[in-house]
Amino acid sequence: MLLRYAGPTPVIDLWYKSAVIYSLNVATFMDSDGDGIGDFKGLTDQLDYIARLGVTCLWLLPFYPSPRMDYGYDVTDYYNVAPELGTLGDFVEFSHQAGLRGLKLLIDLPINHTSEQHPWFQQARSHPHSRYRDYYVWSKEQPANANHGMAFPGHQSSVWSYDPRARAWYYHRFYPHQPDLNIANPAVKEEIFKIVGFWLELGISGFRIDAAPFVVEEVRANQATCRHYEFFGELRDFLSWRRGDSVLLAEANVPPKEMLHFFGDGSRLHMLFAFLPNQHLYHALASSRAAVLAQGLARLPKLPQLCQWVQFLRNHDELDLSRLTEKGRKEVYEAFAPDADMRLYKRGIRRRLAPMLDNDRARIELAFSLMFSLPGIPTIYYGDELGMGDDLGLPERWPVRTCMQWSDDNNAGFSTCSEEHLIHPAIVDGTNGARRINVETQQRDPRSLLNWVRRLVDARQSCPEVGWGTWAHIETDNQAVFAQRFTSEQNSLLILHNLASRSCRVRLDRETGKAGDLIELFGNRVYSANSSDGAIVELDALGYRWFRIGQ
């Protein structure tokens, strides 16, 4: 949909307001040459699979040259493709083929830090008067607050490390091999603009900004930090100048009062991941209390007109529960991560969606339907559309990063290499292994989770009110039923989810019940014609129903 302004201002393409995103790592998606590492040629070969899901946008995790000590988020060259993943030519062909299928491309932009092996850092540490010295944050003495603000509690001992070559301490919000860039340095900003401009020329439609709160954080030893949110406005202006339909999506798990700093008046970031609803969704599933999710959504600030929330169930990191109360976290842990090795960083869960929900198809569908119906746009993490599992034998966040399961062949059909050469393990055996869970098998089964997800995506695409309309929580007479209404200029949508393990007949409020006939669009099954009369709606245990309200 295009929004036009009077006068010389160019047309603004708001494609992102109703997008459906699919997130993947090139290295673990499809290997085309048998070396055990996914690549752009393999990804290009599987674009038809992605397009058939009905998604409209791909978010690629980092694919730059990197030592890969942190899943590619430790970059050594922002202007190239990691050689094991292909060439820039392969990327351009991939970008072209994605465009032919109507797919927008978002790529990860890890600009909070670089790898310690990046030439900038190597130059910075070599001499105190190097032009790159101020690209990073240094201190001659060990700062008193060296243990404050660690990103990975229990796996990180400090945010300042001593570099013998530099004879100074350098700041790293994350691991020691990831020194933070100094955003207060204008030269660093110019480098970022050049990187962004380069990839826009190769056909991408935007960037996912990793660790956004820390990107704009100005750090000085033994001083209070401050954040330069205006940088996002400068970056937005640059994008708009270079490519009008390009967007910025940010990872910012911050309190509600800070969220609007990232949007500004609508002139900074286009989108934020909705961490708060994500955490409250799991709390609602664990407790069967709809009010928990309603309260989480109510805490979100009102968005500027041209901005959007991005909803998700899982991603490549831990399921972060830090915004819940201690009691809420405990309930979620007990329900979805009862064992200590399922938990991480004293705040999260390191499991995939399907095993977390005990591989219960009804619960998986309920979770997907809930997420797809929340205000904003939905994201699917690769493999969740199949019910892929996790490998808890892997360290930290790695259990959810196994290879895509294409078939029941060796290595889950991901690669023809010998198993020991795989970049990451493939789960072959067990409940969620490729012997049982794979694309090839599910594509042939009309009742499979994969084909159900395709139908869900199709239903969501037919309901633009979720991305564009005004959201309202609807009170019912059942505390386990989450009911919401979306209203646009022309249409209204009513969506109900039963979080309880028992069926019910739910009475809607008087206004909703009198709004008009309920036209069923999507549900966990085909309900009888008399299962809703406008005021009372029947719902199965863990059931869900999407209605358009006839006027």
Automatic annotation (TrEMBL):
Span of domain Glycosyl hydrolase family 13 catalytic: 23-435
Example GO biological process: carbohydrate metabolic process
A molecular-function term among this protein's GO annotations: transferase activity
Name of a matching Pfam family: SupH-like_C
Alphabetical keyword list: Transferase
PANTHER family, per the entry: ALPHA-AMYLASE FAMILY MEMBER, MALTOSE ALPHA-D-GLUCOSYLTRANSFERASE
Protein name, per record: Maltose alpha-D-glucosyltransferase/alpha-amylase
Organism, as annotated: Rhizobium sullae
Source taxonomy: Bacteria, Pseudomonadati, Pseudomonadota, Alphaproteobacteria, Hyphomicrobiales
